[in-house]
Amino acid sequence: MKKMNKNTTITLRVSETDKEAIQKEAKKLGMSMSSYMIHSTRHKHINIVPGGRELAEAAYKLYEALSRLEKYPILPVTEVKDTLHKGIEKINNAMEEGK
Length: 99
Fold this sequence. Notes:
By secondary structure, this protein is an all-alpha fold.
């Protein structure tokens, strides 16, 4: 698959507390800070599965792979992404309920 050409830099100032929070959340998901912030901006939320880092990483990678396929209108990518999102929500709910 073709890798995105990242040739622009964004510099921003944040408090030490905010920086630590961003680093912590990105690390939980096995993401770089850049990837975390881009994903957060595009999707407005990230599902965190306590104790399920591998599952969260795999779901994120799958979601990103599906996003790259959206340019092919013949593929039902949106439906698959919606199904993936619903599955992740069910996992989160089950883990919160202690199932």
